UniProtKB/TrEMBL annotation:
<dbReference type="InterPro" id="IPR020600">
    <property type="entry name" value="IMP_cyclohydrolase-like"/>
</dbReference>
<dbReference type="InterPro" id="IPR036795">
    <property type="entry name" value="IMP_cyclohydrolase-like_sf"/>
</dbReference>
<feature type="domain" description="Inosine monophosphate cyclohydrolase-like">
    <location>
        <begin position="13"/>
        <end position="198"/>
    </location>
</feature>
<dbReference type="GO" id="GO:0003937">
    <property type="term" value="F:IMP cyclohydrolase activity"/>
</dbReference>
<protein>
    <submittedName>
        <fullName>IMP cyclohydrolase</fullName>
    </submittedName>
</protein>
<dbReference type="Pfam" id="PF07826">
    <property type="entry name" value="IMP_cyclohyd"/>
</dbReference>
<dbReference type="GO" id="GO:0006188">
    <property type="term" value="P:IMP biosynthetic process"/>
</dbReference>
Length: 210
């Protein structure tokens, strides 16, 4: 099992990441451009959404303004894009994601990562990524996990140009506190963190001074 804090400290740019554990889920966003860094998480009635910290500096909202977290009945849906809404519209995690593909941001072709937490403690993770010019849709289903352990998936393996896509199964990782995760994320690139632990939600925004 990977020490999640050491992994974050050693990885300057995993992009956007989801860690799902027993009764908890974390979602963070990072950014290299001014447009990506100009964001905050704000609470909504059924989850959270991204907003521009300074609306005057927002140049293209298409891939950076969305609802990362929404409830769907008794389930919690967490994604890195507007596929959150697609899943909720279909009422089904897999059915919704089968209608979507990776982001059209050549040359990175950023993967779409998604998770759903069920009331019984089981959960699913998914990544939609480009391979050989087509969309590869991978799904990973878990009946649950042990205390202190989670499964992590991110958009990228690390920094680069183009950015290297995440590969393989979700990483087995330790589950630190939200404050520890926020502190371990790269100080230059981190933007926001959502943490839901036993139903208690905490938001961290670099642009708000966190």
């Amino acid at each position: 099992m990977t020490d999640f804090l050491e992994f974050l400290k050693a990885t300057s740019y995993p992009g956007r990441g989801i860690l799902v554990g027993r009764r908890c889920v974390y979602y963070f966003i990072m950014g290299r451009s001014e447009n990506s860094r100009n964001r905050v998480f704000v609470k909504t009635e059924d989850g959270i959404r991204t907003e521009a910290h300074d609306p005057a500096k927002l140049s293209d909202p298409s891939l950076i303004i969305y609802h990362p977290v929404r409830t769907m009945g008794r389930d919690l849906v967490v994604t890195n894009g507007d596929q959150t809404d697609t899943i909720c519209q279909h009422g089904d995690f897999r059915r919704g994601l089968m209608t979507r593909e990776y982001e059209p941001d050549e040359p990175n072709w950023t993967p779409r990562i998604s998770a759903i937490m069920h009331e019984d403690g089981s959960f699913e993770l998914s990544i939609l990524k480009r391979k050989d010019g087509r969309c590869l849709r991978e799904f990973f289903c878990y009946e649950g996990c042990d205390e202190g352990k989670g499964y992590f998936i991110s958009t990228y393996q690390g920094d680069g140009n183009p950015l290297p896509t995440f590969t393989g199964e979700p990483m087995e990782a330790s589950v630190p506190s939200p404050e520890e995760v926020w502190a371990a994320l790269n100080a230059d690139n981190k933007v926001s963190l959502y943490a839901n632990v036993n139903g208690e939600v905490k938001l961290f925004n670099k642009n708000s001074g966190d």
